[in-house]
Every structure is written in structure tokens, then in C-alpha cells.
Amino acid sequence: MPKLILVWLTSILALVLSADGFATHEAPQTPGGSTTAARPSDGGSSAQAENRGIARPETIEGQKLTASEILKRLVPEEQAIAQRLFSLGAALGTDVSGPAAHIVSVNLAGRSITQADLEPIGRLRELRSLVLDGTPITDVGLVYIAPLLKLEQIYLNGTQITGAGLAILAELPNLRVIEAAGTRITDRGITFLVGLQHLESLALGGTLVTDQAMPEIGKIATLRFLDLRFTRIGTPGLRGLATLRLQYLNLMGTRVDDEGLGVLATMDSLRELYLPPAITDQGLKQLLALKDLEYLGLAGTRITDEGTRFLAGFANLKGLNLSGTQISDEGLKPLMALKNLQFVDLSRTLITDKAAQAVGSWEKLVYLNVDDTKVGDNFISQICQRLPLESLALARTLVTDAAAEALAKCRTLKLLIASDSRMTSDGVAALAKQMPQTQIVYNLSRSSKN
User: Fold this and answer.
1) 277, 254 Cβ separation under 8 angstroms
2) What is this structure's pTM?
3) Quick one: DSSP state of residue 165?
4) Mean pLDDT of 389-403
């Protein structure tokens, strides 16, 4: 059966905007600007594409078994705990390598749990991953997990924890990943994390941290992945991070300006970088020292066609986000030199059908977003047979039913988003029959699903 899906506009937007390049357990989006990244992430599957970003610590899930299988194989002391967690709606992962299984991961994201519900979790001494995103957990609840000395990953995005909660986490010596975006953590709480000798990934987006906390974060020498989006970080704070060997840094929605890019230019270990709105063409020029940069997010910045000549110097780029900038067809021409591009977001730019010349030159491109642009049927006819596209977003473009023949030749396409384009419902239905391998998302601002 053709996988034609008719959904609400809001559902489509959520699907597209979920591609922001972070770990599987994504923090809630913070209002204030686009958060689309230079490549899609698995957490949201907006492009149904493999996460080809910089290798971050993978979320530990353990062996996935049915509830009955887990209960049969668990050591006796964990069976009652598992039953309790199942009643709360938890997803459990187990280690079945030995004669008896142990619970190694617990996911309670979005569940209406109480602080006391964490008490049995604290008795799972083999637990390595705990996901509490979007729950009402506070610092009081974290007291119950203090005995989890083998815990490596904890996800607390959108909870009610504060710096006091970080003091508890600081006693867990094997922590490698802490995600606490959208919480009430302040500068004072960051000091507790300095003693964690294995911490690799820290997400603090949308918290209350400021420049004053950056020298403390700069002391965590093992840190490789840092998310500070939508915080009050500015250029002075970046100086406190200069000694870190970061591979990933997200500064979207911060107060960093062109001057701050001079600091970033010294961080030659960076492979993935997302920048805030104040950045201009001249600031971008300073980043040319980052020769190994693979993913660059410039959504909503003040980059213009003039600045794309600097972008052409990043020969290793695999992902580039220019969404919401003033880039036009002319500005894309220098980017034809970027032969490794796989993920490109040109939504809400000034491009037209003439952009096909540059886009068509990116022979490795698998993800393309041209939502809210003036591209039309001619653009589609020029790129579809030339590129190995797996995901194509055409929402609110000039594309019509006349593009169906060209789209049908995109044999590698797994996801097509044509919401509010000029394609008709009949045209999309006919296209779906020609592309049974492709999920087509199309909406007319009404709720219906096939």
C-alpha cells in the first residue's frame, strides 16, 4: 500500500524541526529561533536518515525483550522492581550475557512519576542508563539514585532539578553523559561536576548558566560534547572553554558574536558547530582555521552571499544549515566546491530554480530541505536524477503536480515532505502509487490519515 500520510500542519512542523543534531533523548525545544541542525538526528527521524554526525556516546538500551521474557530471566531481586517499573510505563533494557539477566537501562521519559518512584531504581546496582526526560522529578528524587555507582548516562531534560541535584550526580564516578536541558541549573551548580573524571557529554541548553560557569566547565578535561543553546553565554564565556578538546559545540540562541569566533578558531578539535544569530560574514572568516569541521549550523544568522566564499574553504563539510539566512542562488555558487555535502538545509532562504546548478553538484547529498523557498518544478527536474536523496522537504514551495514525473525518478527517496506546496491531493495520491518505497507527508490543514 502507498504510504501516503495526511497529517496536521503542526505534526509536520514537529517532524521537520526535530532534526537538530543531538542525542537520542532530545531536550524540549526552547522558543526563540530555528533549531534545525546541519544534519538530521535519530531522535525524531525527521529525515528517516542515518545519523551521520560526530560519534557521541550511544544511549545504552540493553537487550530489548518483552515484559514476560524480562521477568523470567531477571535475577530474583530485580523481578519485583521490574514489575513496578512496568506499571509506571517504563521501557527496560537488560544484560542477558550471564546466566541471569540484570536491568541496565530504564526509560521513564514523559511519565507522571513521583519522587518515591525512583526508590526501587536505586536498588538496580547494574543500571547504566536512566532516562527521566519530561518527568516531574526534582532534586529530592535524585537522592534515591545515589547508590547507582555504575550509572554512565542520565537524561534529565525538562525536569525540575537544580544545582543541588548536580551535587548528587557528582558522586556517581562513572557518569559519561549528563543531559539537563530546560532545567533550573545555575552557575553555582556547575562547580559540582568538575570532579567527574569520565564526563564526555554535557547538555545545558535553556538553563540559567552564564559566562561565569564556563571556567568551571573548562576544567572538565574529558568533555567532548557541549550543548549551551539558548543560554546567556556570550563571547567572554567562550574564553573559559578554550582549553577543552571539544568535538561538538552548540551555541544557537546565545549571545556570542563575531568576536567570539576568534576564540572558537583556536579549538581545532571541533567537528560540529552551531552558531547564534549575531554571526556575520566577517565572523565566519575567522573560522577558516577549523579545517576539519564537518557540520556547521548557521540557521538564522546574518550570513549573506558574500560570506559563502568563506564557507567554500571548509572542504570537509558534510552538513550545512543556512536556514533563515539571506543566501540566494548567487551565494550557492561558491559552495559547489564542497564535494562532501550530505545534509543541507536551505529552507527560508532566497533561492529559486536557479539554485539547481549548485545543489545538483553535491553528488553525495541525501538530505535536502528547501521549505519556504521559491523553488519549483524545474528545480525538481534538475536535481532528482542527479542526487542520491533519501529525504526531500518541499513544504510551501512552488512545486506542483507537474513535478511528479521527476520525483518518481528519485529511487532512493524514503521521505518526501510536500506540505502546503502547490501539489494537489489527487496529484500526491497518484505520486504515492508510483513511489511505494517513499513516505509522503502532505497536508491541507485538515486532519485525515490513510
Assistant:
1) no
2) 0.86
3) H
4) 97
315, 292 contact by CB (below 8 A): no
The ranges assigned to domains in the chain are 65-209, 294-449
Distance, in Å, from the CA atom of 298 to the CA atom of 276, rounded to the nearest integer, reads 7
In angstroms, rounded to a whole number, what is the distance separating the alpha carbons of residues 287 and 266? Answer: 9
Contact 440, 5 (CB under 8 A): yes
Whole-Å CA distances, 116 to 67, 84, 126? 23, 12, 20
- On whether the 65-209 domain is CATH 3.40.50.2300, my answer is no
**395, 399, 391: which is closest to 419 by C-alpha?**
395
Cβ atoms of residues 300 and 277 within 8 Å:
yes
Give the strand pairing for 415-417 and 153-155: unpaired
pLDDT tens, position by position, 45-82: 222 233 345 555 666 666 666 777 778 889 899 999 99
Q: Residue for cell digits 532566497? A: 350
- What is the C-alpha separation between 126 and 349, in angstroms, rounded? 50
- What burial letters (b/e) apply to 47-79, b meaning 16+ CB within 10 Å? bbbebbbbebeebbbbbebeeeebbebbeeebb
Topology classification of domain 294-449 = 3.80.10
pLDDT at 65: 66
Q: What is the pLDDT of residues 169-197, one digit of tens each?
A: 999 999 999 999 999 999 999 999 999 99
Domains 65-209 and 294-449 share a fold: yes
Whole-number Å distance between alpha carbons of 224 and 115: 31
For cell 539477566, what's the residue?
Answer: 101
Sign, CA torsion 300/306/308/314: negative
Measure the CA–CA gap between 27 and 314, rounded to whole angstroms: 29
CA distance 408 to 428: 11
User: In angstroms, rounded to a whole number, what is the distance separating the alpha carbons of residues 348 and 360?
Assistant: 19
